[in-house]
Structure to design on (1232 residues):
């Protein structure tokens, strides 16, 4: 999404590398030498990784994003870092998100609420849905809407259904690629295809699941939690990535809890929905501000996030 | 444990039955006719069950516990209740618990703290442990202590080890049967034998597990949760019953949460231990006051608790 | 609001009296003798009070609400109870609420959300507001709307302003009296007049305040909390009654907390608003189901609630 | 407490200054030029302040703490910072705390628990108390104990009582000055004298209060909260400083909440004590790791903390 920018007024760097001496100094050296001021800094060591999120502002001359990338690479090269992740971001550019939503709209409506209250740190580029209700909600607020029908197994048959899902993803990709910074699955009814265009194009995707994962994966999480007799319920906002073995196993961003003891089914369900609405808003906000870094747990290999 | 009592000054009834009209009235009728006053009442309908916990006090004449049981049975008989559970309790008698603890003593110490502060609603009949540290803690407070060695696989070999576990349970049973109202497994190092004496004798057993079950069953729950990247951690106090398919799958009594995001391993672990200490105390208190009723979820068959 | 009902299919009783033997039995005796079944029962002793909330269903013949009231009075008379509060309610009748809202609509929108999701246990009789935004929100959902202008000090002058406030209350009273079971002040911009018609007519009124009361009363609660440096923030839903010495000092119904440490002002404010939205919904639900009883703390005289 | 150190293996800097460009760069420039590596960095802008907590490790040559202080001063001088706070700390030296405790020992016992579990990031230099129970607890663990009698109004008379308090503070000061990094008031029974030696010598002092401050200051906080009818209770760990207008109004470090609705007095009290125990441990940990910076809210002037 980022086109050549003539010069950054304010920039942001995200970095993850195997922890070793000198990483932070190398990054800071570049920023200082470029005549920028550090305005916000986080550098943390965890699980053998070193993670940086830092913001910097131009004083006089401005460097382009590409030039920053180049200089960071050069400065880090002598350290011979392995498995490094680095990203330089124009902090002055407001991000754009595509929201994908199906028939169940309470998470989408929570995002719309925050849009109206001016709480969102990003813009909604468009809404993609197979639901006329979502269409009405989007259009009444002047948000671009795309109707997508991803088929139904019963109507299409197994093979045609798979094809329809792929077609739908291709269409979504076409509508959004190059135009959005991330996707929010606000109760999207389809599991993304592991080799489909959406997971392959590496644009971040966030989803919300109505349980405290890893408990209760799958399509009946609230009911399953209720039937299990949990005393604490909740929701998880997580990333959806090509690396996930299963849906609901992507790196977690936020978990919100709610009391669940003694509640009858309907109130239990409502409590989880409260948690979902809070989780999706908070996770969306994190994404709009680039406040997470993914890394692998050194023992289990599970992909975790650190929030900065 | 309950021997023939000449007359109840104050009684307590716990009841669970398939919900149908007339249950509460039948129970209340007996209490009223006996000349007792209801002093605390809970009657709740959930998941197709009707649950009662009620306390009552004598005004003049006193009825024995057995007489109450008899009268309740008679009054309920016309309703033809299925799968009914009913228990009448002498509310004036302080309960007695046996605490089983191994090398890790922080949960035991939490209980001792509340003992010293006068917070416990029951007495500690004895402490059973394979740990000299627990012995010292118990004896310095004048609590009866029994040393039990349940063996080690490496030392005993597989077959001898199973026998040692059985011998240990038999010994514990002998030391406690007829003398305790419930067991608290305050970090006990052995899985109870499914057909062993402790699970067979039907005296309630409570244990605490360092995760928000059903996530992370097994012996490395805190580590597993950490490696999974959860943002919310916690502990679960649950019952251990003959019906449980696996350890950690007994009816849940209490779940306590703690924040877990961004924490390094050691602080994550400490937060879970905070949750365990709170969970074991709260669950012990519930048991001392007969504040739970077990019932089966009608859809999943999972055994859940309702706290009254 | 309750007109003579020919017979209750299901009833509800709320009672509060100085605790003494025999209260619960007297109530239960009436229900049983009338041939009704107790279907939900709570009887609790706290702070020297005995509190009852109980539901009961007809089996064959039905008694009118008035007849129940009469019989309860008769049965309790021999106990000579002081300061007794008793209310019999037709449990089959859905309650009706008037919502009063000013320019800030996020609490009102939260209620509308739950209306649309079918979560409300009551109907919205009408919306009363001085805001065109609230008008649009109400009318687009087919909810009766009344525009009320309660004046402005700057425009009306002090004396005229007081008169305008009184006129507004009179108008609201006229629009709603006999037609609503309770009022919800969903961010209403006027302090109710201590001797005005709304507080005098004794119909319950609920309001939400953006702090963990009694901290930060008054009109700038969120800002005050922020400037104070609290690490935990929240919101309180409370009743507004003629007895309150100050606004924000009525009996508390619900308090919801949110994390507040290290947050910049805007995020702090958003967290409190999350708490307000949750508090107003939960408190509204309690009111729709008659789940609170007010009583005075025996030491301080402060009026508290017990939730049943 | 910090004597001339020949060279820092690892250092820590805390800084607070009115936010303006160049602060972070100046600090980082010094660290880099000294040949140290930044290993942990936090630089945050809030309420018009810029706050830094950063750790750094020597690569080859080591600079003394004094030399670092000197270089930081020089580097910051051109910025003309006002109201600046800066501290350089030897991160390799384990801190030492004096614990002051009176008759109520549950907070002290919580700290002892964590001492035994190896959770504390500091050493307990000594325990100061007027309680023989505290003495026994300390001595049985081999902790240095000083008995201090700060008098009683009833015994000493008003004037003599004030003198006794002053004498006690002088004695404590003598016992600890130059030997401790901070004080923990683990339920200390005396209000520190505003002009007494302990508040004057500027060694940090932490205390825990059994309410969610600013609600319920004073000596009967738990009772006051109970009588007020709060639905959420909790505890606050805060600093005690010369600048506080009243006790309980020092900068807050940590607030811990507990559910409080419907609880009878004794359980309410126990819940608050749970919160106190968690708060004192967490706050002690923050102090041992220098994880807080005090600053004044720009609007109210109230002194707040930011946790880094």
């Amino acid at each position: 999404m980022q086109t050549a920018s003539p010069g950054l007024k304010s920039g942001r760097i995200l970095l993850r590398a195997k922890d070793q001496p000198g990483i932070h100094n190398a990054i800071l050296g570049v920023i200082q030498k470029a005549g920028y001021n550090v305005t916000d800094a986080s550098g943390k060591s965890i699980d053998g990784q070193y993670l940086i999120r830092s913001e910097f502002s131009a004083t006089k001359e401005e460097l382009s994003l590409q030039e920053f990338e180049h200089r960071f690479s050069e400065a880090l090269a002598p350290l011979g870092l392995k498995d490094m992740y680095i990203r330089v971001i124009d902090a002055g550019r407001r991000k754009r998100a595509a929201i994908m939503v199906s028939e169940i709209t309470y998470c989408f409506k929570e995002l719309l609420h925050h849009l109206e209250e001016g709480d969102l740190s990003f813009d909604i580029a468009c809404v993609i849905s197979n639901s006329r209700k979502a269409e009405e909600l989007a259009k009444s607020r002047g948000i671009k809407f795309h109707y997508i029908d991803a088929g139904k197994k019963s109507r299409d048959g197994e093979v045609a259904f798979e094809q329809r899902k792929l077609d739908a993803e291709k269409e979504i990709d076409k509508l959004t690629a190059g135009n959005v910074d991330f996707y929010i699955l606000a109760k999207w009814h389809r599991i993304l295809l592991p080799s489909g265009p959406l997971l392959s194009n590496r644009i971040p995707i966030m989803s919300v699941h109505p349980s405290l994962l890893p408990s209760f994966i799958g399509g009946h999480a609230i009911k399953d939690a209720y039937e299990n007799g949990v005393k604490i319920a909740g929701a998880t906002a997580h990333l959806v990535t090509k690396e996930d073995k299963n849906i609901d196993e992507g790196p977690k961003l936020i978990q919100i809890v709610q009391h669940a003891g003694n509640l009858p089914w309907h109130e239990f369900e409502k409590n989880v929905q409260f948690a979902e609405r809070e989780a999706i808003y908070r996770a969306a906000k994190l994404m709009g501000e680039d406040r997470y870094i993914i890394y692998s747990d050194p023992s289990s290999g599970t992909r975790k996030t650190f929030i900065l």
Summary: Chain D has nine helices and 13 strands. The interface with chain B takes residues 106, 109, 113, 117, 119, 270, 273-274, 278 of chain D (CB under 8 Å). Chain D has a mean pLDDT of 94.
